[in-house]
Design goal:
Belongs to the DegT/DnrJ/EryC1 family. This protein is an alpha/beta fold. The protein has helices at residues 12-24, 31-44, 55-65, 83-90, 108-114, 134-142, 144-149, 155-160, 217-227, 236-243, 260-270, 273-292, 324-336, 352-356, 365-372, 385-412, and strands at residues 48-52, 73-77, 94-98, 119-125, 164-168, 176-177, 180-181, 188-192, 205-209, 298-299, 308-309, 315-319, 374-377. The structure holds pyridoxal-5'-phosphate.
Amino acid sequence: MKIPFSPPFIDQAVIDSVMDTLRSKWITSGPKVKELEQEMLNLTGSRAAICVNSWTSGAIMMLKWFGVKEGDEVIVPAYSYCATALCVLHAGAKPVMVDVLDDFTIDPIKVRYAITERTKAILAVDIAGWPCNYNLLNAVIKDSAVTKMFYPETENQLKLGRILLISDAAHSIGATYGGVPAAQKSDIAIFSFHAVKNVTTAEGGCICLNLTDNFNVAEEYTYLKMYSLNGQTKDAFTKTMGSGWRYDILFNGLKINMPDICAAIGLAQLRQYKDLLLPVRKKIAYKYNNTFSLFSWFVPPPLSNDERESSYHLFPLRIRDITEEGRDQIIEYLSGKGITANVHFIPMPMLTYFKSIGYDIQDYPNSYRQYACEISLPIYPQLTNAEIDYIIVNVANAVKEQIYKTKMLKKAS
Ligand SMILES: *Cc1c(COP(=O)(O)O)cnc(C)c1O
């Protein structure tokens, strides 16, 4: 059997949607992007949704929108994909990394201690689709001792009057918190539509706004659409709608708009997401969870509790007491059986670039602990029952072999 890690979901509806766009002769930003934004509003209940060409570019734009600049700090977890910190560097500011909890999410207490008078934003990552502790994070940023430390330097910072809470929702499309879509628990939630994510547009992202009433969300939407298109007053589609050729450039925006040909893929997936694609992911996650629960080496991942429910983007299997080398060998074993597994994530302080600018994994012991024992298993709607059983059997065998080896080694020494 050959089981890839996360192939995109491409059914007839996706193909039809793309063909429809091709035949319409309109392939860049236009009606399909508008429809995708509307679907994102329906799913998240957000006040505005702006599609862009990646999570990363969307995050850079929103940090710039908030006026984050050189000398500012943005708090991020050490345990994430590099983009979570790189967007902060691209905005000119300093990513202040903090350690994570045992559920992989940023530790709100560590966040509280990392706040300084330079802190402008927090980027909280819903790892594997599991929402961060947003109630605590909101309590931290709204605490009067913390708001007193906040020095607004731009109009948007004045309007908010406190640290901006951005959710890195790259994994968590469809996740819930306290009975509402998790996106509503932060000021801005940014989703990724990269090829491996739950919903994809090949490359793409969506910014969902749930800003306070001090902001005019309709105006912000118009402004951000312009920002994502060179600060241009009219997009190409509007110009074809008989609104005239003349346009203006109001400010130096970015060029990060999403094309319709990409939106067409995501649109066809999103229309089946809540009723079909997400429930299938959930079913697979619980099949893994219930079966592996029979083994004492299994550390269950966070999937759902009274407060939160995951989007089941990853199944982060953790193996009790395994070393990093032992974990690597299990992945090798699985690879030999045709199963592609992965690790989410190598903590950023372990990557060459972040090391070179002074980050050290020793400062983030729990990020290392989670990383060293983690294996992300294939989880996607196209997996057959036979494939899932095959993965389960081989994981169990691989771990048994590895634990046996480790015990022999310990005896020998
Ligand atoms: C995929 C991912 C991103 C980046 O998304 P892009 O759309 O590829 O820019 C950011 N954060 C996390 C946690 C991710 O997994």
